[in-house]
């Protein structure tokens, strides 16, 4: 039970004696005793039964009895100061009170009141107590206890008493004292005092405190952390720039532990004009190894949390990332992670990352330097990194595939949490199920890459579920599923104990459905490859191959697929050597049994058709022959399907076993083929249908055989083999030309060839080159490099150029060997471009020239094939050499210099072209233009682009002249205009220059309208750019008003331009109307003339009821109405509302003549709400006094009369709207507007 204050027990008497010794006699001691303050028996703290009673006694007792006089307060402070000079007494004042029941406990209770806090809560005592407290703090740091240690901890405890004060009585005095004490204390106490400064300093003293802290920051960098935290809690005002500049100067050289606080301060406090510099500094600071994982992680977290609170800083960071796309550094990727973690910026940063990946601005090396070396620092950003990995996975760029593999593996390794592992694997499996081929392939590549580096056996229940969806995957994806599962099985060490995959393969291989047998073949080949790479699993690989060959013995389609897949595996050199030998023995056995025969062993004739051995390059030395004609028999078509895959596999296994040599199999390169005799082929139209089918099939098999053979031997450097390849290409050209003619002439042959190739029946012509296996790029290199001699005919050259063009166009990924060979082949094309030979060029030479130019243009535009260094080397080697040129000097040439040299040579070659047929000459010049444009865009030289643009202008003039004669030339006009737009940085200037041409060419007008629509959609809010846009639009409207064929493009363009006028021009005019009144009004007037013509065209289109153009009317009219009300709002906001009124818009034809509305609409016709805008209480809406658009003749006459009568009035009246020019129908709007404008000017 607690005793009352008036009655004291024996123990209380002891305590009171101690308290009497605690303070001198005086008012303070009396009030404390009366409030129930005692000392515990142990003497370590004060005991108070009721804290509220103590506070009440101090507060009201002092005020009531002493009236808080300064003398009494001074006595109390003197008493307090005397008491606190004793360290133990001072300590008891700082230690929390305890109740009588707790007085014997040694447990320290946080959050309780102390004597100091109670005294600070008394208004009349607070200032004095703070002064005593602040004076005592520096003294404690200089005193020492019995052990020789300073009372620093006690000083920190004293500082903590000043936190969270409910009020400050005298802020100015406290601020002055506090700032003086800070400079007098050692560093450890300074940190505590600085941190408490924002809580004690009042708003009026913030400026002084900021000055002191900035000075202290400059002189004591080690105090950066508390100073910056304190500055964040103060009102900086105009001193923010000084503080931020100080921090920016110290950021690069500061201690790593201080960097997070500096970044937090800059993000929260940097003025707007310092944000760009702050962002650039942070870009260089992030991802530095010198920071260390802890500081780097905190720095990035502070940046993320800061931009969440201050979106302005995040916007500037976004802008900085956009501006520096081509020069990204590792810190930029860190900023992207932080921005991805902020919801306000997530969509924008995702778009930016996708664009950077597509353009190749984020490379694999950049990713490695940004993420792989900072795994510990980025451990808290796993969610953002998963989002980033998903973006790389979904990017259309092939270079992002490697990045996504590295990132998913990094994410898996840097986190030990199972939930994150599940999220990563689940994210990849989600991509697997998206049904987008590229993304599915990349997701499987990532899973395989992870499985090769870490054990994924824990996720086999999830990964094994992929087997349930095998029939939904493509062939490549099926192989990837089995490669993934096989890799996981090897990594887990369960090779011998787990036979689940073999059971599935046996089930698929013996399935009656061809689709599932195909899955079994793909899985068997893939698992054999995966297991052969692991020594412990090679026995399983042999067993799988034995099962595969046994299962496909009686199924030729499955056998052909097996050979093809094994050939791809051997080509990648991923099959173990002993298994490769076994596969080669199997191939030789099958080849000798089914296909190989001696030259003298003439196969039995089928269908009584004459046959003969053709295309024999070895002559009498031929050791084998191939019975192509026998394979064309219906009963052996299955064997025919296996011929080429078998030869591919045989050659690949021989290369792997003989270090790339094919000497053991060179007999197949020059061996003869048993084919239908020439007499049969010459009279094939008179032969029976089975003979025609057999002949066509024989030619197809021969073409496939030759393509397969030359591809296999293409990498050989032997001159004899290269000569044989040239002869085989000549044979191939002859065979395919004959077969293509046969397909075009005989429908039965077309059906037979299409059925063999697996092409569905179709009515359009069957083009062989689209379905046969492409020639290897090395083959094209061999042929092109030998094109200068007579061993290569024009037909051969055209064939290989076509194949090279396909290689440069249709490939998405290139191996280093393929790239190197392709560059060599492209360099050899100079034979066709610059060395045409003596005399005039015939048609075949022109075809070769055009194909070579087109191939070069496609290759130069394909950055995945021709890298930057290869590009400039290609330019250097293509251009004709001069006597003073040195190949070794290419590294010293500037890119623009190389581009200019190539440009000069190409233009000179183009000017030498002569052809009697003008359209053919234009076709060739178009190829020159494509190549010049591709080279100029790749070099990035403004001077070269200007020179190329001048050449394209000449070709465009030629195309415009011939477009009236040849309809196909019209397509060239659109392409040439597109080239000019790409080469210029000012697209509106290009359109304006195009409009200076006097021609009324319909194609040119339509193309310019389409280009103007695209430019208008992205035009910046710049008054000069917008003025040029609307001037070009007005000119195009005048040119196309009498050309109904372009009305569709005109209406689309007009809608976009009208939207640009409302959304971008009106805000610009709102700022300029008062200062540039006449200029602004004239611009509105000129644009209204175009809108009138668009209204007339809408009326005409509705009358014609065009199914393509009529749907465009509502959106165009809606945009035009928006313009009207936007102008009305503009005039009203500038005190010129009297110059605008609403009138009735009359129906007019294309010539501007008024017509009755019934002339365009039959009785009973209805209109939509947008089209029938006249159904308004105020009539149709237009600007009030601008004249309606008359015909072209009326425009000219009106302008002449205006200039003769009163030239000063020709530019006035530009803000009025939709009433007619008839003075009887409208009031004098011009006068009204001039008066309103004058009044507005006077007011301003």
Automatic annotation (TrEMBL):
Residue stretches of biased makeup (Basic and acidic residues): 1190-1201
Organism the protein comes from: Rhodosorus marinus
GO molecular function: DNA polymerase binding
The protein's name: Fanconi anemia group D2 protein
Record localization: Nucleus
Biased composition (Polar residues): 1167-1176, 1203-1213
Annotated spans, Disordered: 1164-1244
Record-level GO BP terms: double-strand break repair involved in meiotic recombination; homologous chromosome pairing at meiosis; interstrand cross-link repair; mitotic intra-S DNA damage checkpoint signaling
UniProt record similarity statement: Belongs to the Fanconi anemia protein FANCD2 family.
InterPro entries the record matches: ARM-type_fold, FANCD2
Alphabetically ordered keywords of this record: Isopeptide bond, Nucleus, Ubl conjugation
PANTHER family for the chain: FANCONI ANEMIA GROUP D2 PROTEIN
GO CC field: condensed chromosome; nucleus
Coiled-coil portions: none
N-terminal signal peptide: none
């Amino acid at each position: 039970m607690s005793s009352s204050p008036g009655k004291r027990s024996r123990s209380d008497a002891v305590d009171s004696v101690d308290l009497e010794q605690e303070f001198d006699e005086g008012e303070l001691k009396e009030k404390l005793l009366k409030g129930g303050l005692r000392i515990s028996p142990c003497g370590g703290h004060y005991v108070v039964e009721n804290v509220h009673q103590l506070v009440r006694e101090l507060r009201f007792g002092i005020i009531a009895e002493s009236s808080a006089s300064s003398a009494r307060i001074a006595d109390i402070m003197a008493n307090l100061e005397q008491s606190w000079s004793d360290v133990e007494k001072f300590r008891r004042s700082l230690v929390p009170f305890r109740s009588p029941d707790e007085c014997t406990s040694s447990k320290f209770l946080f959050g309780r009141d102390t004597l100091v806090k109670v005294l600070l809560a008394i208004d009349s005592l607070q200032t004095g107590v703070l002064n005593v407290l602040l004076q005592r703090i520096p003294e404690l740091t200089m005193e020492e206890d019995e052990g020789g240690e300073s009372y620093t901890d006690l000083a920190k405890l004293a500082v903590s008493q000043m936190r969270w004060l409910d009020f400050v009585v005298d802020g100015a005095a406290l601020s002055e004292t506090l700032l003086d004490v800070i400079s007098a204390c050692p560093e450890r106490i300074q940190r505590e005092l600085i941190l408490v400064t924002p809580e004690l300093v009042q708003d009026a003293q913030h400026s002084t405190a900021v000055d002191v802290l900035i000075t202290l920051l400059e002189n004591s960098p080690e105090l950066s952390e508390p100073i910056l935290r304190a500055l964040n809690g103060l009102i900086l005002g105009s001193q923010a720039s000084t503080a931020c500049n100080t921090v920016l100067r110290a950021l690069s050289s500061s201690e790593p532990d201080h960097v997070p606080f500096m970044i937090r301060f800059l993000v929260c406090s940097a003025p707007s004009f310092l944000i760009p510099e702050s962002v650039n500094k942070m870009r260089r600071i992030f991802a530095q190894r010198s920071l260390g994982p802890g500081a780097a992680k905190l720095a990035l977290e502070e940046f993320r949390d800061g931009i969440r609170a201050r979106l302005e800083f995040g916007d500037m960071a976004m802008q900085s990332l956009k501006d520096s796309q081509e020069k990204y550094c590792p810190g930029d990727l860190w900023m992207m992670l932080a921005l991805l973690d902020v919801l306000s910026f997530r969509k924008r940063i995702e778009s930016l990352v996708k664009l950077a990946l597509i353009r190749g601005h984020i490379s694999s090396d950049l990713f490695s330097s940004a993420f792989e070396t900072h795994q510990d620092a980025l451990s808290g950003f796993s969610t953002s990194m998963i989002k980033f990995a998903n973006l790389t996975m979904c990017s259309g760029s092939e270079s992002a595939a490697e990045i996504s593999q590295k990132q998913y593996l990094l994410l898996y390794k840097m986190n030990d949490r199972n939930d994150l592992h599940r999220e990563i694997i689940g994210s990849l499996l989600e991509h697997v199920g998206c049904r987008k081929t590229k993304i599915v392939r990349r997701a499987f590549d990532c899973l395989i890459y992870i499985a090769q580096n870490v054990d994924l056996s824990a996720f086999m229940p999830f990964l094994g579920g992929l087997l349930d969806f095998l029939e939904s995957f493509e062939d490549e994806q099926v192989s990837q599923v089995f490669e993934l599962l096989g890799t996981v099985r090897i990594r887990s060490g369960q090779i011998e104990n787990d036979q689940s995959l073999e059971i599935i393969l046996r089930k698929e291989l013996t399935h009656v459905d061809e689709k599932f047998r195909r899955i079994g073949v793909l899985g068997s080949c893939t698992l054999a490859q995966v297991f052969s790479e692991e020594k412990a699993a090679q026995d399983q690989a042999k067993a799988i191959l034995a099962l595969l060959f046994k299962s496909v013995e009686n199924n030729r389609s499955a056998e052909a697929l097996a050979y093809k897949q094994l050939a791809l595996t051997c080509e990648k050199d991923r099959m173990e050597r002993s298994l490769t030998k076994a596969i080669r023995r199997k191939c030789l056995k099958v080849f000798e049994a089914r296909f190989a025969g001696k030259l003298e062993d003439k196969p039995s004739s089928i269908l009584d058709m004459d046959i003969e051995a053709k295309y024999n390059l070895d002559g009498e030395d031929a050791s084998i022959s191939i019975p192509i004609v026998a394979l064309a028999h219906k009963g052996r078509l299955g064997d025919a399907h296996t011929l080429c895959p078998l030869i591919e596999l045989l050659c690949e296994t021989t290369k792997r076993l003989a270090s790339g040599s094919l000497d053991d199999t060179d007999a197949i390169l020059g061996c003869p083929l048993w084919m239908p005799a020439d007499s049969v082929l010459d009279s094939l139209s008179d032969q029976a249908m089975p003979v025609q089918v057999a002949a066509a099939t024989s030619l197809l098999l021969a073409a496939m055989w030759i393509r397969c053979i030359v591809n296999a031997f293409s990498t050989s450097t032997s001159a004899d083999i290269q000569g044989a390849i040239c002869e085989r290409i000549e044979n191939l050209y002859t065979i395919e030309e004959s077969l293509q003619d046969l397909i075009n002439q005989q429908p039965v042959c077309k059906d037979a060839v299409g059925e063999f190739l697996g092409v569905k029946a179709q009515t359009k012509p069957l083009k062989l080159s689209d379905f046969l296996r492409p020639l290897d790029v090395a083959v094209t290199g061999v042929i092109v490099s030998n094109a200068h001699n007579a061993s290569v005919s024009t037909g051969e050259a055209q064939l290989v150029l076509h194949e090279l063009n396909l290689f440069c166009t249709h490939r998405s990924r290139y191996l280093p060997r393929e790239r190197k060979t392709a560059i060599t082949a492209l360099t050899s094309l100079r034979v066709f471009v610059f060395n045409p030979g003596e005399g005039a060029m015939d048609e075949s030479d022109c075809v070769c020239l055009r194909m070579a130019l087109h191939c070069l243009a496609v290759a130069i535009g394909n950055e995945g094939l021709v890298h930057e260094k290869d590009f400039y080397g290609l330019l250097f080697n293509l251009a004709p050499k001069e006597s003073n040129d040195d190949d070794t000097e290419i590294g010293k040439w500037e890119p623009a210099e190389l581009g200019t040299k190539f440009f000069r040579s190409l233009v000179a070659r183009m000017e030498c072209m002569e052809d009697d047929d003008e359209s053919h000459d234009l076709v060739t010049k178009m190829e020159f233009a494509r190549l010049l444009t591709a080279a100029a865009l790749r070099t990035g030289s403004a001077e070269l682009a200007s020179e190329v643009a001048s050449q394209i202008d000449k070709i465009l003039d030629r195309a415009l002249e011939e477009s009236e004669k040849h309809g196909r030339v019209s397509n060239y006009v659109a392409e040439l205009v597109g080239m000019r737009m790409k080469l210029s940085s000012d697209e509106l200037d290009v359109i304006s220059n195009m409009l200076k041409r006097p021609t009324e060419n319909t194609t040119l007008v339509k193309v310019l309208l389409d280009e103007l629509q695209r430019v208008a959609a992205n035009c910046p809010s710049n008054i000069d750019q917008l003025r040029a846009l609307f001037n070009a639009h007005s000119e195009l409207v005048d040119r196309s008003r009498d050309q109904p064929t372009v009305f569709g493009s005109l209406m689309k363009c007009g809608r976009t331009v009208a939207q640009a006028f409302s959304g971008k021009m009106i805000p610009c005019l709102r700022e300029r109307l008062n200062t540039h009144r006449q200029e602004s009004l004239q611009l509105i007037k000129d644009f209204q003339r175009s809108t009138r013509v668009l209204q007339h065209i809408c009326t005409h289109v509705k009358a014609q009821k065009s199914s393509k153009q009529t749907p465009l009317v509502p959106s165009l009219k809606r945009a035009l109405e928006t313009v009207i009300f936007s102008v009305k709002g503009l005039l009203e906001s500038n005190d010129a509302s009297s110059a605008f009124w609403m009138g009735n818009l009359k129906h007019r034809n294309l010539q501007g003549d008024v017509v009755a509305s019934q002339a365009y609409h039959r009785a009973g016709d209805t209109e939509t709400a947008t089209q029938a805008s006249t159904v308004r209480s105020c009539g149709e809406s237009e600007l009030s006094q601008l004249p309606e658009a008359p015909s072209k003749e009326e425009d000219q006459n009106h302008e002449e009369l205006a200039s003769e009568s009163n030239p000063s009035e020709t530019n006035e009246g530009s803000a009025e709207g939709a009433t007619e020019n008839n003075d009887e129908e409208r009031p004098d709007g011009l006068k009204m507007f001039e008066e309103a404008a004058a009044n507005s000017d006077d007011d301003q």
